[in-house]
Amino acid sequence: MDPREREAKEAKQRQTKALLDRAYDRVVSTQLDKLSSIKTYTEDDEEAYRKKIASDREKAANKKRKALSAEHEELARTTGLSGHVVALMAGGGGHSDSDDNTTSSNGRGERKQKRKKKSKKKIQEEGIQKEEERAEKGLQ
């Protein structure tokens, strides 16, 4: 091989190697920047997280459940469904005394009736105002 050709080939190889090195450095440096910007968690952070999870688990475990009637428990045993599902399907007859279910159908119906009455009253008031305005224009 001619020495000029060999030098040209080596120069080309050095050039591509330099290009690849710069590309590698760019990729690695962006990855390192990302990693350095990510928060590192300390033992205190992990301990606080463990405490929070434990307190959430404790709240869920201590949550007061509604009592099921004997009838619902029997239906649950015979059907294989959960007692709460049976109670829900049976119309909620087995709820405990502290029934704080605000989304019952009765509550919704009452709210709907109130809303209807308010809107009717508003429409009537607007109609009266329009009649008064017409009367005033007619008098002028």
What does this structure look like?
This protein has 140 residues and is mostly helical. The protein has helices at 3-37, 43-61, 70-79, 83-89, 105-139. Mean pLDDT is 81; it is low at 93-102. It starts with a helix and ends with a helix.
- Can you give the helix content as a percent range? over 70%
Record field, number of beta strands: 0
User: Mean pLDDT score, rounded?
Assistant: 81
Largest sheet: none
State the order of secondary-structure elements, H for helix, E for strand: HHHHH
Count of runs of 4 or more consecutive helical residues: 5
Shape: flat
Indicate the radius of gyration in whole angstroms: 38 Å
Stretches where pLDDT is under 50 for at least 5 consecutive residues are 93-102
How do you describe this structure in short?
This protein is an all-alpha fold and 140 residues long.
Keywords, separated by commas or semicolons:
140 residues, mainly alpha, 76% helix
List the helices and strands and how they pair.
Elements (H helix, E strand, L loop, with lengths): L2 H35 L5 H19 L8 H10 L3 H7 L15 H35 L1
